[in-house]
Amino acid sequence: MAFVDLEGTVRTGAGKGVAGRLRRAQQIPAIVYGGAGGPLAVAVKTKDMAAMLAAQGRGNVLITLTLAVGAGDGKRTVLLKEVQRDPVRGGVVHADFLEISMDRKIRVEVPLILEGTPVGKTKGGLVESHLRRVTAECLPLAIPEAIRVDISALDVGDSLHVSDLPVPEAVRVLGDAGRTVVSVTVPAAEEEAAPAAAEVAAAEPEVLTKREGKEEAAAPAEEKGKKEKEPEKKGKDEKKGKDEKKGKE
Asked: Which residue, 22, 65, 86, 120, could crosslink 155 as a Cys pair with Cβ 3.0–4.6 Å?
């Protein structure tokens, strides 16, 4: 576990006015939580905070916060829990630190770093990342900076879950072990093409059925026509017989 050093001072004032003066003096107001004496208001230099955030960007780090001589002076081991940024300029305007004990387990967010190119991607598969970090519980010195995951063996249709992560023995990952971290799926265009082909194939028997229906309907119509013609023919034959009989007489 990496350590970084950060210097700060204890501040006694509070409010927007004090915070504004600190920022104009290139300092950032912050709070240290978790200590025996309760929350402690401090200030750190803007440039030191930038350097610390650069180190934090590579993964989890433990911070040795050294406070100037005075109330709350001394060294404290802390973790950066949250930063607030200016919505326009993007600079840090406030920070929260958590003081920790080296012999007590804590819960931290550990980033996941996916390495390698899945074999399924070379076949046209789509790589989908579902999880970028996990919550882990361990002693401070066992906190991993990040969990690196080799995904090069994943083929189309394969998935990697939380239970598959290469986690150190001293670390316990919390949450659903079956949750998907990354998967390689078939592109949507191919998935839509298959049902469309099935629909076309299924439609052909329906067309034949309709034609058969028409032919079947035509047959009764022909029979009906024949039945209607039979009485007419019978009537003509009877009339012809009568005329022949009358002539003989």
From this structure: 120
DSSP 8-state secondary structure symbol assigned to residue 123 = T
| Cβ atoms of residues 104 and 142 within 8 Å | no
pLDDT in tens, 23-47: 888 889 999 999 888 899 999 999 9
Q: What is the pLDDT of residue 220?
A: 53
Q: Identify which of 148, 72, 71, 53 has the alpha carbon closest to the alpha carbon of residue 63.
A: 53
Closest CA to 168 of 150, 183, 190, 148: 148
Rounded CA gap, 27 and 205, in Å? Answer: 78
DSSP state letter for 132: S
Residue 55 phi, psi dihedral angles, 5° rounding: -70, -40
Domain ranges for the chain, please list them: 2-100, 107-184
Question: Which residues of the chain fall short of a pLDDT of 70?
Answer: 58, 69-73, 188-249
CB atoms within 10 A of CB 42: 24
Integer Rg of the chain from CA: 41
Structural fold of domain 107-184: RNA Polymerase Alpha Subunit; Chain A, domain 2 (2.170.120)
- Place domain 2-100 in its CATH homologous superfamily: Ribosomal Protein L25; Chain P (2.40.240.10)
